[in-house]
Amino acid sequence: MVSMLNRYVQLLKDHNLKITHQRLEILHYLNENRTHPTVEEIYSNLKKIDPSLSKTTVYNAVDTLQKNNVIQSLTISGSETRYDIKSDLHHHFLCTNCGIILDIDIACPNIKKTLHGGHKVDEVHGYFKGICSSCRKKERGST
Ligand SMILES: [Zn+2]
Ligand SMILES: [Zn+2]
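^ thats the input. predicted complex w/ zinc ion below
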């Protein structure tokens, strides 16, 4: 836990962000829960550990972390924003049956390129949707 904490502290330092208890808690939560939670989920789970936590503080901290690229946001499900600590570029798979969001580690070959017309690519979001393997197993099992 101490080494993890050092990692989060370093992460904030790397982005020239002030080290706050709330920011460290959020990073730790996202690192332990790779489910791509919403800010509401992050807040309600941290609130269980730290009842003094204010909703505004958590929302602001998540917003700051996202704007400074410490965490990334995704809108794969359309209606809500989800958060992910994994800052390297990867794609996402949404199961339309159970709603799980999984990381897809397929490198995008175009990311380092400059597009025709001179546009430089900083982000590529690949959203894959379908039925996840465990749902498919259940489907097969029930027939
Ligand atoms: Zn599923
Ligand atoms: Zn992810």
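The mean pLDDT is 89.
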